[in-house]
Design brief:
Elements (H helix, E strand, L loop, with lengths): L9 E3 L18 E8 L4 E5 L18 E8 L4 E10 L5 E3 L14 E7 L2 H4 L2 E4 L5 E7 L11 E7 L1 H4 L6 E5 L2 E8 L5 E14 L1 E5 L4 E4 L5 E12 L5 E2 L7 E3 L2 E2 L17 E10 L4 E3 L18 E6 L3 E2 L4 E7 L6 E2 L37
Parallel strand pairs: 12-24
Antiparallel strand pairs: 1-8, 2-3, 2-11, 4-5, 4-7, 5-6, 7-10, 8-9, 9-14, 10-11, 12-17, 12-18, 13-16, 13-20, 14-15, 19-23, 20-21, 20-22, 22-25
Length: about 375
């Protein structure tokens, strides 16, 4: 989804060939990227360590194929803009369009802003803000997890005298937070069968500053609900991922408040929470959730619904470059009914069944028997 807001800023029109998106395992540390000149023709080349690949592939020096680079002179004059650099047989990245971008012959300093995947894949534009700093303007997170991207960037400065022979070193960093939801249960009395998850009400739109490497959330935008599906699975003591074939979510770093089931069951305030699509039965097969008394019809099957959402509030404090794994343990409970359900905020399972017992003290029962002589 692209932002259509008109902004009175200097635009750097940065269209490029779309790349597949990347999903990476936890990687909080920056990974170094080397860049150096080809001394034969003074052409600027790069050799990155990260880039845009398929979500299931961890990016390495061996499989990275393409990056995108914008270069500004010290006074913010564009030297080149949104140029795709593709990996050659020699391992160096040169301009994919066949053009050559060389160092100015004097001591002019160049600023390099590199990123992956392309702006076409990201669905946003780069602009210069009032401070003449390049920003990724109003990036909006897709609600389909399969379309989300692992956005990485690197900045550097250099000039001919200092960097023609030694090269410009770039360090790429992940600019998104990666989210995974898992579930498990060691409960021996109840059977939990799960079929999906929700990551609910994160902020979805923000602007990234390439100089400060910080996001600014656009709070006036709506929040979103991300939904996953998996083959129905009975929980055990070994946690299973609920993310399905689309992989983990890639979301804008953010800090946000949690949903309050007690004070705001309908979640009017749009607090954050996780939900699991679950069917709960006794070990003898008696269904407890969805509540048998609800008798709600599943529109997809025309039958009583077999699954319903069980939720737990979370207060995200997601930082860029970190992977957050939420493991929901159903051993001692099942959370509350999802805010979008007709009975939001209600405990999925009641408290433990308990009895009060009062044993009366022994009392004498006086039964007089008259004994006769027969």
């Amino acid at each position: 989804m692209k932002n259509t807001t008109t902004m009175k800023k200097t635009l750097l029109i940065l269209s490029a060939t779309a790349l597949a998106v990347t999903g990476l395992t936890s990687c909080a540390d920056d990974e170094p990227v080397e860049g150096r000149m080809n001394s034969a023709n003074d052409e600027i080349t790069f050799r990155p360590a990260l880039g845009g690949l398929t979500r299931a592939t961890e990016t390495t020096n061996d499989n990275i194929s393409s990056i995108f680079v914008t270069s500004l002179m010290k006074d913010t004059t564009k030297y080149f803009s949104d140029v795709e650099f593709a990996k050659g047989a020699d391992g160096y990245f040169t301009a994919a369009d066949g053009g050559k971008y060389v160092w100015p012959g004097d001591t002019t300093t160049l600023k390099f802003y590199s990123y992956s995947p392309s702006l076409t894949a990201i669905g946003a534009d780069i602009v210069l803000n009032d401070k003449k700093e390049p920003e990724l303007l109003s990036y909006t997170t897709p609600e389909d997890i399969s379309e989300q991207v692992d956005f990485i960037t690197a900045n550097a400065t250099g000039n001919k005298n200092a960097n023609e022979d030694t090269g410009v070193e770039l360090t790429f960093s992940h600019r998104m937070a990666q989210i995974e939801v898992r579930a498990k249960s060691n409960d021996t009395h109840y059977v939990y069968k799960v079929a999906g998850a929700r990551i609910a009400r994160p902020e979805m739109t923000g602007t990234f500053n390439f100089v400060t490497n910080q996001w600014t959330l656009d709070d006036w935008h709506d929040t979103m609900i991300l939904t996953t599906s998996i083959t129905p699975t009975v929980l055990s003591g070994n946690a299973v991922s609920l993310m399905g074939k689309d992989g983990n979510a890639m979301l804008i770093p953010q800090k946000k408040f949690a949903w309050s089931p007690k004070d705001d069951p309908d979640n009017v305030a749009r607090g954050s929470y996780l939900s699991v699509l679950v069917n709960i039965t006794t070990e003898d097969g008696v269904q407890l959730y969805p509540f048998p008394s609800d008798k709600q019809i599943d529109p997809a099957t025309g039958k009583l619904r077999e699954y319903a959402w069980a939720s737990v509030p979370i207060a995200p404090n997601w930082e860029a470059g970190k992977k957050y794994i939420y493991t929901l343990d159903f051993t001692n409970g099942a959370g509350t009914v999802d805010p979008d359900d007709p009975t939001p905020g209600k405990p999925v399972l009641g408290k433990d069944i308990k009895f009060t017992v009062n044993v009366l003290n022994w009392s004498d029962a006086d039964n007089a028997i008259m004994v006769t002589n027969g």
